[in-house]
Design goal:
With about 1000 residues, the protein is of the alpha/beta class. It is built from 24 helices and 39 strands.
Length: about 1000
């Protein structure tokens, strides 16, 4: 085995961890398996269903409830796949042939097989949640054959059965997303499989912000007898968790939902399904403060002024939950996700919080176990609690530290050396849904799988593998985010390769919709996540919340870079076209699942983008006196209307109304969800028609020359640019137009047409230059003349015959700027500091570079620029400029946070071997910089460079702190325009086409 150095492990224990990986590789890697589940008989295969008969299932009546629940569910799965329901026997009859399901030490039949050496169980005894599946010949000495599913513990048994279900084709979301399996006439099982121990011990979800989906759906549709999220709903949630091989729930806790323990059946269902019950970061000791703390009768939730009442409040729940399989949150915050009352800052909070933790552990020792260290506990350092912890709070060593992300997918910090060695270990609380500042994202599942993989594998390699909790909002529509997270938590090994992320998504699509559709659906969903990574649908209003602000115009540029806004619209329109075309093509059984998992999120995101970007175009085009402005306003309104219509279908027609009240198009009624506020500007009634070349914004635009002539940006033979010109009506009177060129090198996509106020009110032409007509030497200074209705408008076209030295490879200037993607460096040098490593599937560009850990004892040396220049790893980029300029570099990184307190988020830049500039994009708290970073999923730093002469240059970026993820660099030589998304790389055309 090759042991690689884990890049995010604190340096003092890197070798120890590598050794641990080597020693426990068998527990972390999936065991070799020859288990197959097929529809065709093969020698030695076990006939689960054959000749229209299903063999019976045997589960010991003395086994745990969850084993029997899983057996009943598996029985229904077999019927779902084949139409034939096996018998289920819980008597003591010894079968000749059958499926034997049981837990080591709790199943007489399984134990008998082990004792008779018919079943190898050495890897199961005493293990955590492991299982084996094997075909056993002559199991009890009377001939026959058995398919044995044995678990090391009851959850392991359930996991084994649900593994078989999945191999038969039953998705974990078969019920939650109506994902119907492919029908099979017969099912055969051959071989054996021994599951590894889970990568993360406790793996689960936090149901949160359930006000607009899960709670009203449970109350009014699924569980009206309870009128709330109750035992019936939780049974479905817990079955989903078991199918995902998860084991932990942080229950729903908003004011709309009564507390988990309010309904006695909830705790009983959790016990039956063997689900560990915890509580969120804000709810110590399994309490739901929002619903259970009554300030009018109980007083302030303040341990300084109201200790006895607060203490009894916790004591009552500990006594009540003494028989519950629980993971206790310790510590204290405010009643609902707010700071602890009675203290003014971290220093004042420390002694009080340490006393609170000691008292809570005293309750656990009194009612749960005399040794409190034997009771699983977590301390989540969320929001202001992290500040308290970092100021010196002492948390008992046996308590698991849970590191939170910043609510937007970037983990605030992870273990240092001392924390990594704590016996309690550590874990992560991660968001895929969030309510709060700077803006909610509660509507669609839009967290990029590449970001989830990067952050969670960083945590895993750091040793944070005891508890992983995912905030899933309403569960729907976060199905894929949930499944990816749980697959990673259960078996992290394949996710260590960043490229596996996209493979996982494609396999998920193939499993649900078949191999014929997998590639296309996988591509659609990847592009959906890519677009959402640049800007989530919920953020397209450019508004914020807490406090709530009105929507504003987006930062996507409508006038440069080929109309950046339109390019985004076109990308969404292409996805929308594909899913609309696919919908009638998918199998009838897959229609409902396709709508929920692919169609609704893709179409919804597309419509949200159109709603705002068409609104913006209506505004800008009205300023240009285009008659088409009104049409764009109508398109924006139509997009909004379509969101409402699609959501109505989701709630009232999908799956026969099964999901009525589940989906809301306006969570929290924030401005972004409302009908578009359409611009008040209206064309002033100018007669005739007009022309707007790329870069023309208003009549006072800088692209209008001194003589009033419109101009396009300059062309050259190296970049081979393409620019647009719009011809549009001012009024609605039709006009026939023509376009002619003064130089044969100027090429137009169209040279004549007709505009009609009742139909096409504008047209976009694309302009290129054919440099082969005068290779390399003759400058271009020509024009396009547009004529129509007795009017003509010239547009100037210029070009520079630029050239490069033969064999040059690198980036080049394009109209006053250079754009490059970080992954496409010219050369790399790995030195003492952590090397830059390639991350597939990451960032705006789809791949990025990440700085690894520093292999030094004294990280303070990294503040010494001379040391950095001599010892730090770097990547270098060659670029060429055609005019001297005072340059500014803009560097884009992911807005990640320091690995722990010893680090910041630094990198260093130099040009042409000159002085280093150290940039640091670390943010503290919820600053305005942090808000903009997470809304954009990028951190931006501008660095002035020295004056650059004409010719070849090199730019180096040095690795300083681990976890810096480099995405894109732009060098402004005086011509860079504002752009929101990534820019195409400025490489010579010949190099672009050869890539």
């Amino acid at each position: 085995m090759i042991v690689r150095r884990c890049p995010f492990l604190p340096q003092g224990i890197a070798l120890l961890f590598a050794a641990a990986v080597a020693l426990t590789a068998g527990a972390q890697q999936p065991s070799e398996t020859s288990l197959s589940v097929t529809s065709k008989r093969q020698p030695g295969a076990f006939p689960l269903v054959a000749a229209q008969k299903a063999v019976p299932l045997y589960v010991d009546a003395a086994d745990a409830a969850v084993a029997k629940i899983a057996a009943r569910a598996f029985r229904e799965d077999v019927a779902l796949v084949t139409g034939i329901r096996p018998a289920l026997d819980s008597t003591a009859v010894v079968p000749v042939t059958g499926v034997i399901v049981g837990t080591i030490g709790q199943s007489r039949l399984v134990d008998q097989l082990v004792n008779n050496k018919k079943l190898e169980a050495s890897g199961l005894k005493g293990a955590w949640e492991r299982f084996g599946i094997s075909v056993v010949e002559n199991p009890f000495g009377r001939g026959g054959q058995a398919l044995v599913v044995a678990g090391s513990d009851p959850r392991g048994t359930a996991f084994g059965l649900f593994e078989l279900s999945k191999r038969m084709g039953v998705s974990p979301f078969y019920w939650w997303a109506d994902a119907a399996p492919q029908h099979r006439e017969e099912v055969y099982v051959a071989g054996k499989f021994m599951a590894p121990a889970p990568s993360v011990k406790f793996r689960g979800i936090f149901i949160n912000d359930e006000d607009w989906g899960l709670q009203p759906w449970a109350e009014k549709t699924f569980e009206p007898e309870t009128g709330d999220i109750g035992p019936k709903t939780y049974a479905k949630v817990f079955e989903l968790l078991l199918r995902l091989k998860a084991n932990l729930i942080w229950p729903a806790m908003h004011p709309s939902t009564k507390a988990f323990f309010h309904y006695p059946g909830n705790a009983q269902v959790a016990a039956d399904y063997a689900i560990v019950v915890g509580s969120s970061h804000a709810e110590p000791m399994l309490r739901n403060n929002v619903g259970e703390w009554k300030e009018k009768t109980m007083g302030a939730f303040n341990y300084l002024t109201n200790k006895e009442t607060v203490y009894k409040y916790w004591e009552d729940r500990v006594k009540e939950s003494s028989g519950v399989n629980a993971l206790y949150t310790i510590g204290m915050r405010g009643v609902h996700d707010g700071a602890m009352e009675g203290v003014k800052g971290p220093k004042e909070a420390i002694p009080l919080l340490e006393r609170i933790i000691a008292d809570q552990r005293g309750l656990l020792a009194q009612y749960m176990h005399q040794d409190a260290t034997a009771v699983p506990q977590v301390f989540t350092a969320y929001k202001e609690v992290l500040d308290i912890y970092d100021n010196g709070l002492k948390v008992p060593e046996d308590v698991t530290l849970v590191w939170p992300d910043d609510n937007y997918g970037y983990i605030h910090r992870l273990n240092n050396n001392e924390e990594a060695a704590r016996p309690g270990g550590s874990g992560v609380y991660y968001h895929a849904s969030y309510w709060g500042r700077p803006h909610d994202y509660l509507w669609l599942g839009s967290t990029h799988p590449g970001l989830v993989r990067e952050e969670m594998m960083k945590a895993y390699e750091n040793g944070s593998n005891r508890v992983w909790v995912l905030n899933v909002g309403d569960i729907k529509p976060l199905e894929y985010n949930i499944e990816q997270f749980m697959d990673m938590a259960y078996n992290a090994a394949p996710f260590q390769d960043p490229a596996y992320t996209r493979q996982h998504l494609a396999r998920w699509a193939a499993f649900l919709f078949g191999s014929q559709r997998a590639a296309q659906i996988g591509h659609i969903l990847w592009e959906y996540y890519q677009l959402a990574f640049e800007r989530r649908p919920e953020f397209m209003g450019w508004s914020q919340t807490e406090p709530t602000t009105k929507t504003a115009y987006s930062e996507f540029n409508h006038f440069f870079y080929g109309d950046e806004a339109q390019r985004r619209i076109d990308r969404y329109a292409d996805l929308e076209r594909q899913v609309r075309a696919l919908r009638p093509q998918v199998a009838p059984k897959d229609q409902d699942a396709f709508y929920q998992l692919v169609y609704y999120p893709v179409v919804g995101a597309s419509l949200m983008n159109k709603k705002f970007l068409y609104r913006d175009k209506s505004h800008f085009y009205a300023l240009q006196q285009r008659s088409s402005a009104a049409g764009y306003a109508q398109k924006a309104q139509a997009a909004f209307d379509s969101i409402v219509k699609e959501t109505d279908y989701f709630n009232n027609q999908l799956a026969g109304g099964k999901w009525k009240h589940m989906m809301s198009w306006k969570p929290r009624e924030l401005p972004v969800y409302q009908a578009p506020v359409l611009p008040q500007e209206a064309p002033a009634g100018l007669p005739g028609w007009g022309v707007a070349p790329e870069g023309f914004v208003r009549p006072d635009s800088s692209l209008v020359g001194a003589a009033g002539t419109l101009e396009l940006p300059a062309f050259d033979p190296l970049n081979r640019q393409q620019f647009f010109v719009d011809i549009f009506l001012h009024d609605r009177r039709p006009v026939a137009w023509t376009a002619s060129v003064s130089d044969p090198r100027i090429r137009l996509s169209q040279t004549a047409g007709r505009l009609d106020g009742a139909g096409q009110q504008q047209v976009r032409l694309w302009v290129t230059v054919d440099w082969s007509k005068a290779p390399g030497k003759t400058p271009l200074d020509g024009k396009i003349t547009f004529k129509g209705g007795g009017k003509q408008v010239p547009v100037r076209v210029t070009g520079r015959p630029l050239s490069l030295a033969p064999g040059y490879k690198g980036f080049i200037e394009n109209n006053g700027y250079v754009a490059l993607h970080a992954a496409h460096y010219s050369r790399q040098s790995n030195r003492a500091s952590g090397p830059w490593k390639l991350l597939a599937g990451q960032g705006y560009t789809g791949e990025a570079l990440e700085a690894g850990a520093v292999a030094l004892k004294d990280t303070l040396q990294l503040g010494d620029t001379a040391w950095i220049k001599q010892h730090a790893s770097f990547v270098e980029y060659d670029f060429y400029t055609f005019s001297p300029a005072n340059a500014v570099a803009t560097v884009f990184t992911l807005p990640t946070h320091p690995l722990h307190k010893a680090y910041s988020m630094r990198y260093a830049v130099s040009v042409d071997g000159g002085p280093l500039q150290v940039a640091d994009f670390r943010t503290v708290g919820r600053s305005e910089e942090w808000k903009q970073n997470v809304l954009k999923n990028r951190a931006t730093k501008q660095l002035p460079l020295s004056a650059l002469g004409k010719g070849a240059h090199s730019l180096r970026v040095y690795s300083v702190d681990p976890g810096v993820v480099l995405q894109e660099i732009r060098v402004d030589l005086g011509g860079l325009k504002k752009a929101y998304s990534t820019l195409p790389e400025t490489k010579p055309f010949s190099q672009k086409t050869s890539r």
